[in-house]
Amino acid sequence: DRPTQLRPQEISLPIEFEGLIAVGLPMRAVIRQIMDAAAVDIPVLITGETGTRKDLVAAAIHKRSRRRNHPYIPVNTGAMARELIASELFGHERGAFTGAQDTRPGIFEQADRGTVFLDEIATMDEKSQVSLLRVLEEKTFRRVGGSKNIGVNVRMIAATNEDLEQNVAEKRFREDLFYRLNVFHNGLPPLRARLPGAITVLTDHFISQFAAVYGKDVERVSPETYRLLRRYPWPGNVRELKNVIQTALLMADGKELKPEFIPERIRHAVAGSESRGGPTSSFRVGSSLGAVQKEFI
């Protein structure tokens, strides 16, 4: 059978899926990738800019997988001291290092039969990468200071906002580990690459969420506020938008979310971009029409 084609009005309708708000084809594709990844028990690599909510995608994959009734442990390796990553992930034996007074199981042991989500995977040092590769290939590891192998049944999901292929080329990430993690790739689009209506939908969603939390009576957003939010490039993506709306709701004192409740940096950024006008291009005299069209496209 031929696949069903979505009509334009269907593409613009929001879908809420495991905490993700999807509007437009890029996010519809993300949801399809989540369902495909959940159906097979293989490693997944999630890539995307900071704030695109890679953590929600990882959690959704686990919730939709056969491991849903077993542990799901998210780990931000970027927030750990490098010398402690191995101990946190694989545990340690008593006396393995100064302060190790007791034997302690690591995250992989705790997550047996479940899923481990390793965020900011690019921050791991060489030694931890080797241990991680062993878990992927042999399903075993050793505690820090240990001498015996421990078997474990864990699904691994990793995420990064860096270009791992570039890191591999620069010898900052192991090539064999990259290919073992990148069995299934899920790439998240930045907020600025989604439909313009996505800003509106997400804004309304966060207003409803935080108005209930803080007991606010905000019922609508002024047209000028929507204009500011739509024209801002959102380098921090969905997380930045969520934080902005949360702060604005705390300050709001009426039924309408007005521009004065939006951070000054956003108002100034939009005003600055508008004062500079639209993008400009220069062309060499005698350029063909085809060359000019190509440059504009």
Structure write-up:
With about 300 residues, the chain is an alpha/beta fold. Helix content is about 45%, strand content about 15%. The protein is built from 13 helices and eleven strands. A five-stranded parallel sheet has the order 4-5-8-3-9. The chain has a two-stranded antiparallel sheet with strand order 1-2. The chain has a two-stranded antiparallel ribbon with strand order 6-7. Strand 1 (about 15) and strand 2 form a beta hairpin. It is elongated and about 65 Å long. The two termini are about 35 Å apart.
Quick overview:
With 297 residues, the chain is of the alpha/beta class.
Task: Using brief descriptors, characterize the structure shown.
297 residues, elongated, two-stranded antiparallel ribbon, five-stranded parallel sheet, 13 helices, 44% helix, alpha/beta, 11 strands
Question: Secondary-structure blueprint of this entry?
Answer:
Elements: H1 8-11, E1 15-17, E2 20-22, H2 25-39, E3 44-47, H3 54-63, E4 72-76, H4 82-90, H5 107-110, E5 115-119, H6 126-138, E6 140-141, E7 150-151, E8 155-160, H7 164-169, H8 175-181, E9 184-187, H9 197-214, E10 220-221, H10 223-231, H11 237-251, E11 256-257, H12 264-275, H13 289-296
Parallel strand pairs: 3-8, 3-9, 4-5, 5-8, 10-11
Antiparallel strand pairs: 1-2, 6-7
